[in-house]
Every structure is written in C-alpha cells, then in structure tokens.
Amino acid sequence: MRSNRATVRAGVSLAATLPMVAGALVLGIPAAHAADHPGRNALAGTKPVWATATADKGSASDSARVDARVYLAGQDPEGLAAYARAVADPSSPQYGKYLTPRQAQQRFGATKAQVAAVKSWLTAAGLKITSVTPHYVAVSGDVAAAEKAFGTQLHNFAKGSKVYRAPAQAVSVPESVKDAVLTVTGLDNAPHKASHKDQLPPPDAVFKNAGPFSAYYGSDIATTLPKAYGQKIPYAVKGYTGKQLRAAYGAGTYTGKGVRIAITDAYASPTIAFDAATYAKKNGDAAWKTGRLHQVLPDTYTRTEECGAAGWYGEETLDVEAVHAVAPDADITYVGAASCYDDDLLDSLSKIVDNHLADIVSNSWGDIEANQTPDLAAAYDQVFQFGAVEGIGFYFSSGDNGDEVANTGTKQVDTPANSAWVTAVGGTSLAVGKGDTYLWETGWGTEKADLAADGKSWEGFPGAYTSGAGGGTSRTVPEPYYQKGVVPDRLAKANNASGNRVVPDIAAIADPNTGFLVGQTQTFPDGSQQYSEYRIGGTSLAAPVIAGIQALAQEARGGEAIGFANPAIYARYGSKVYHDVVDKPTGRNLAVARVDYVNGFDDTDGLSVSVRSLGKDSSLKAVKGYDDVTGVGSPAKGYVQSYRRH
C-alpha cells in the first residue's frame, strides 16, 4: 500500500544497483532456495512478509479471480544495470551516451522468444493473457490456474483487522522461462497503492489561509503575540511565488527553454489548464505558451473513492504550478495514472520511458518502506534503469513524516525515494527576505503550540511534532557507490555494517509555514466551484522545485540531458554550489506565528493561533555536511551554472 505524499496545507500531511541471480537479476530481489521448488526457479520476495503461518486462515477458493503481472527480466538485466550506472557517471567514458527507447529495448528488453515462452507457459496453466507490454505479461484466471502456473498455494491471511489472499510459498517459474521472468506481482490482493469505469469527482472542499501574513520572511512581526525563544516572531509568509524561489536558488537568466519535464500523479484535475494560467497571470510568472502543457491520461479511471481522487487534484496543481514558476519556459507533460495503485503508477512511469516523453520526471507520491515488497521494488527499479540509459532522471519526494516513528511506530524511510536509481528530494524551511534575498534555510521539521486562552503564552511550548521532511537509512537497499565517501558511516551503517542507502540526496523548500502560494479551483461551502489561492508545502513541493531547477541546469549545458542525476549531484558535494543547510542557521531557535481558520475557510467558527518552531524534524537533524534531512543541501547560486559545458 502506498500513500499520497506530501501536500501539506494546514501543517499536517493530507495526502537499488544490486546484482542478484538468474530470474531476479540486478533489480532488488534476493535469491530463493531452489530446493524448495524442485525443477523450478523460485522468486524470493513474492511471498509477503505478513503472510505468516500464524496469520494463515486456510486455502483460498479455487474459483476466486486472480489478476497478476509477470514482469519480464529482459535479455541482459546485468548489462542494463551496468550501462545505467556508466551513462550517469561523470567519470565514465560512457557518460551521457544515451540510448533511444528503441535502442534500449533492442539491447536490454525482452526478446520475442522470451515473451512467447512466457505466454505459452501461462496459457498452458489455464490463465488468460489480458495484455502484453515491453515490461510485463498480464494474466487473469482462477486460483486453481494461478497455483498451477506459479507453483504455490494461495491462502487467506489475516493482515491487521482484514483478511487478504497471498501466496503461501514463494512463487516459482519453470526452468524454461527462468531467465525471462523478473518477478510476479498481483498474487496477493492486499492494497498496493499510493496515498491520494469511474468518473472523476468534482474538486475538493475549499481550503484557505487566514492572515495576518508576511509578504517576505520577517516583514510582519507578531508584536501582540507572546514571544518564542526569547523574541517576537514573524507571521508566516502568505506563500512564496516563482520570483522569490528563482532568486533563492540561483536561477539567473535561465528559464528551462527547450527542456521537457514530466509530472506523475494519479487521476487528473479537470481545471488544471485554467488554474495554471490564472495563477501565472496573478503571480507574475511568465504566461503559458501554446502547447507547453500536455496531459497523457488513461482511457478510464478506477478506485476513485478508495484513492480519494479529488485529493489528487491539488497535488497535480501544485506540481504543475511549481515547475512552471521555477522553469517558466519548460515544456510540461502531466501523466496521470488510472488509480493510486502501484500497477497504474508503474504504467505511467513506463509511458514516459517507452516514449521518452521527458528528460526530467517529478513524482510527489510514495509510501513507507515497510509497505514496499521486493517484487514491486524490482519492477520500479527496472523502469528507473531503462530511464537512466535513455537520459531520464526521476525525482521523488522523500516524505512528510520525518523518521516515520510518530506516523508508524517504526523508524524508516519512504519508497520509491529509497531506490538507488532515483533522486530523493528532502525538505527545508526557507527564509526569503526583502528584495528576494536568500536569508537562510533549516531542515523542515515542525513543532506546534497553540495560544493560551488568556493570549499571554503558548500552551506546552514548543509543543508537539506535526510533520517534517522524510529521511533516514533504508533497511532494504544497499549503499550505492555515489554515496560512499560522502554519507557518514553513522548514517550509512545505521542498520548494518555493510552500509545502506540513505535518503535524501538533495533538498528544497517544503515547510508549509514558509511555503508556496498555489491557485486551484475548489468547491466552496455553497456548492460553487471557484478559483482561490492558499499556501502549501511538503516534499511534494520540494520535488517539482528541484525538477524545475534541473531543467535550468539542463538548459545551461546546452540542452543535453542530465539523466540520472545522483552521481553528478554527489560529485558537487562540499562545493559552494550548495547551501549547506543546518537547523539553527542564525545560531538560535526559530519560529513563526500562524493564524488559521478553524473550519479551513472563513472565521465563522473562529480562528486558531499557534507558534510553529522550525528545524525540529523528529529524530532527524540537519547538520553541517551531508545529513538525512537535506542530503547534500539545497541549490545555491552557481548550481545551475555548474552544469555548463566548458
């Protein structure tokens, strides 16, 4: 199950380069014991960890329907991983020698013979082929046929308060197709979704911010409110705009001209064109040029109620408006998934890779690592590797719940941001001063205390943790080569002595208390639908901001694709092209005052006044050097220009 990332409005979330063995090579699935499946090749990672003997409720009905995907390993999975690394490594002679989608498929994709063999095996077992893509063969049938095909019994298992079907043993495939099959998904029917023949619902209920506001950081001091940390504090900004963000992150004269950016989310806002154009006009962004905003959408949508389809409209709106604000001349393609489930999100990512719709892909969604399964991790990583060899870079928000302890009870990172093949984007609190001057950043982490009834103090100051940038050390993904020598051992080896992937890689503005102004058509209490603006944050903001900055950098290097950016990002570590973000940049604790409508719309039900402390991200700390809140830091003046060809 995946959860909708990081659209944060009222201060709370709404919303691996790994060589293996045949059958599950390179892409993240550990080998299974062949002795468990005589004459067949077992695929470890295909039995969910929650499908335990104590949770077993017995065999599933033989006649129950099963829909599954058999992901194809391709003809050279080890070569795909090796080429993906080489083409992204600035020190490699193959750096930047990208392949076209057709060349990538011809060199690394599944052969006709592999596909034919897989189809023959599946149909012989009694399953029906429902679709074939360059990435997988989809099948449907009953439980009995699935058990025959995949060499495992399907049982019902308790998972929390519910019961789901899942394999009782790891899936296995015949020796004849072991080199053709990467993994199998869909045999368990527990939800695998990201949190946010159906019709899309209308826009969500309205949300508005109350004032007073600061126009820029510190412009309006809350003189009538109690002090925090020994001083009067400013009101939160109304919401930064593109002009302020471009100045803060050193955009210079670059605009992203000639660069293609894709954005993925679930569903599609029915008012995005109007909202984006209206927002740009009202807030000083360059007007949208004809043909600069495209949408690639599925024929039908599913699971709209379960996924909260209308809640995804704000995500798309934020992503589109933030990218355009930072890179106003970039070409933007929105690729909407049919639902918030992994299969549909994977299909959206695959569309981008198979058709090379963009060089830069912003993704503001994900879930906790504990909910990721090795089979799905392998499928995602294969898409990311194909993207890398084509010169496509994927940027994922790192999450909005800090170390996830307050949210899940367990310290962990988010996924797919944990993949070694994507750029994980962390979050900051950003202070932009008068004249669009960059003042400082902290790691994003918020503690909240409400104003006491007598108005003379803050109750329980500094208050409880509410949200913060996701980060930390993966438990499943080994340390990638580009992090070695940069990420401190105390982080890399936090979970084992061999070292693991640490998140994030880079960071940008995310704190909703120092957030971005967004404009969206919303449903008002009287039922009308009107355009309105509000301040927003989350690493859902940081990801498109970094995507926009990468577009500026690609323009600076003459339009040549940056591709998978992590090797280049870490190669610049320690230089002046990054702001080295720390939690007390001024030497003391920082906070802002917020005034909010209790009902989220107007003052009918009163106002809520609170103090929000900055730089308090659960157990995570933004410190000098690399850290697990902001990675190498945020882009500074000179970052974009550092990509210029000399």
Provide a descriptive summary of the structure in words.
- This protein has 646 residues and is α+β, with helices and mostly antiparallel strands.
- Helices cover 22% and strands 25% of the residues.
- The strands form nine sheets. Strands 11, 12, 13, 14, 16, 18, 19 and 24 form an eight-stranded mixed β-sheet that branches. The chain has a four-stranded antiparallel β-sheet with strand order 5-6-4-10. It has a four-stranded antiparallel β-sheet with strand order 21-20-29-28, with no helix packed on it.
- It is globular, with a radius of gyration of 24 Å.
- It starts with a strand and ends in an 11-residue tail after the last strand.
- The relative contact order is 0.16.
Labels describing this entry:
30 strands; 2 domains; 646 residues; alpha+beta; 4-stranded antiparallel beta sheet; 14 helices; globular; 25% strand; 8-stranded mixed beta sheet; Rossmann fold
